[in-house]
Amino acid sequence: MAVEAPPRRGRGSAPVVRGAGSRSAAAPRRVLMKGNEAIAEAAIQAGCDAYFGYPITPQAELLEWMARRMPEEGRAFVQAESELGAINMALGAAAAGARVLVSSSSPGISLMGEAMSYMAGSEVPVVLVNVMRGGPGLGSIGPSQSDYFQATKGHGHGDYRVPVLAPDTIGEAMEIIPTAFEIAEHYRTPVMVLADGILGQAMEPVDTTFRTPERRVEDWHVTGADGRPPRVVKSLHLKADELEEHNRHLQAKYAAIGEAEVRWTEEQIEDAELAVVAYGTAARIARTAIAHVRQDGLRVGLFRPISLWPYPATRLREIAAGLRGILVVELSAGQMVEDVRLAVEGRVPISFHGRTGGNVPTPGEIAHQLARLYALTAPPPSPRAAPMSAPGGVAEGGLP
Amino acid sequence: MSVTASIPPRVIYHPPELLADRSTHYCPGCGHGVIHRLLAEILGELGLGPRTIAVAPVGCAVFAYDYLNIDFVEAPHGRAPAVATGIRRVRPDHFVLTYQGDGDLAAIGTAEIVHAAARGELITDIFVNNGVYGMTGGQMAPTTLLGQKTTSTPTGREARLAGYPIPITEMLALLPGVAYAARGSVADAAAIGRTKAMIKRACEVQLEGAGFAIVEILSNCPVGWGMTAVESLEHLAHEVVKTYPVGVLMDRTRHVAAPHRS
Question: Which of A117, A209, B159, B171 matches a 20 to 30 Å C-alpha distance to A287?
Fold first, then answer.
């Protein structure tokens, strides 16, 4: 029988228990909150000075919460003329030393891609929340994870990376917001929090335990050249050697983030023969499916990346060595599965199950895929017939 | 030892302190240098240097931060008014200035300028209109005159194909959030003097909290126009002003409601 053990949480090179940092002294209160609103309030409590946004489903409640709460707190709120306007307001405010949040959903994030490149180049820390909806194009307003490529490898032009954090519960989203501000400000980089329509729209009981990262005055903030030389926040370096030097500096920063900011959880991996790799809402559905198949005696665990970049590839590779196979589950046609393949390097067969268009896989669908993979990767009667990879048709389980 | 050597020189002009002591990358005869100098003079006269945060555009003037001794943020193309809005909202005690060209402001950044103006953001926008995309080689800008030859209108701008010049400062002057809108020029010393007064007023309007302020400055691009510097200034003084009349277009702080054109 399956035993529900608390998930092991990983960060950096070794799993550690999360939860460092100053927490508010008041006893936590348990309240029912909508994801979008909880994320907004977590940002306010994390010391967000300014919010800029533009209405788009399914994140509109985040903007609406900020419209009411930010003026109450005497902080900046602007409903911009477009996502281009919002993200560039964020660039200006953050360059001037403010802690800044912007939020949008998939089509809006596409528009923000330009400024993300500029913010990466000029090293301006801003936290962006993407409450993903179905694409491509106008797509749908239903939940989706089809912006994984965009979030982890895409948006703007140039050699740069953006740390991406993907919570699977509203409570975790609230904890991740201050962490996102810390990473953004420590490394001087935009950071994306990747949620989806379910996480944004659902309501869950959450602890109103908030965390406010320490505020730092930086020697690059533009605050007026009063008694000091002028400062410039810019990304233009016309001289080839100068830009190459800047790129080396950025790459060194990304390497440091890759070392220190990897986050994931492992659930029931210890005895697992198969693992589901999934993040966000897909991981929650997979958790239910795993509980079902464990009742049938299938030893399946869950590996849940929290940081999608940097990807917890090293740990996933270690785990893969002890598995018969991996099932990747996404609310997409198959995006993160590519990073799983890169991490595992062919050590075990990898199968994929995804739904798109705002549909989500049911626990039953995932359980079915797990049973198939379990059977197909069963140890052969004779050692000579050991399969090196999954037979055709399984490796790409694909869309029903 | 001569007698004249002992007489101290009479200083009739000193470069403003806020203007960096270095040569610019601008082409010979270009108006940006004059406009930078005017800005440095005015910010100095108003004592604003230490609390100014400026936003540089994409275009020839992206390097404004190399020539003005004030804090700068470099904006993506056209987005300077949005970047300035962000700065303004978190730094209410500072002075916020944007410097944009005509491609930056009147083409790719139309939404940003219109909405910053509509919100009445306390920003002073210096809008340099030289009728072409100078930095990329002199292509047609939205402000290019009808019939004007550019590298992307090789036989001259035709309204049938490329539409009409945009009088965007007149358009902005209609918005209640705009406290001050004016158009000056750098065609000659007298015009430069009047333009300086306009820029100064546009700065004071921000300090008074009256609303958004914009000064469009008609400038020349000798290289982009295929003219000598002198020819380009004559063209500016006699031809460009026919499409873009100079004068104060709106001053809501002084109840100048009807556009005045000189």
Answer: A209
pLDDT tens digits for range A126-154 = 999 999 999 999 999 999 999 999 999 98
Q: Flag whether residue B135 sits within 8 Å of chain A, measured between CB atoms.
A: no
Please check the confidence at residue B1 and state whether its pLDDT lies above 80: no
pLDDT value of residue A13? 42
Cβ distance of A80 and B74 shorter than 8 Å: no
Kindly state whether A342 is in contact with chain B, defined as any CB-CB distance less than 8 angstroms.
Answer: no
Residues in chain A: 400
Answer whether B72 sits within 8 Å of A234, measured CB to CB: yes
Question: Considering only alpha carbons, which residue of chain B is nearest residue A84?
Answer: B79
Candidates 3.40.50.970, 3.40.190.10, 3.30.1950.10, 3.80.30.20; CATH matching B19-251: 3.40.50.970
Residues B78-105: tens digit of each pLDDT? 999 999 999 999 999 999 999 999 999 9
Cα–Cα distance, A209 to A87 (Å, whole number)? 28
**A261 and A311 in contact (C-beta within 8 Å)?**
no
A260-291: pLDDT as tens digits: 999 999 999 999 999 999 999 999 999 999 99
Q: Please, what are the domains in chain A?
A: 29-260 (3.40.50.970), 266-385 (3.40.50.920)
**Residues in CB range of B225: below 8 A, 6 or more apart:** B131, B132, B138, B148, B231, B232, B235
- Amino acid (one-letter) located at B18: L
Rounded to whole angstroms, the Cα distance separating A399 from A36 reads 29
Residue B159: partners with Cβ closer than 8 Å, 6 or more residues away: B146
* Nearest residue on chain B to A88, alpha-carbon basis: B83
Is residue A112 helix, strand or coil? helix
Q: Residues of A numbered 205-224 whose beta carbons fall under 8 angstroms of chain B's beta carbons: which are they? A: 222-224
* A49 CB within 8 Å of a chain B CB: yes
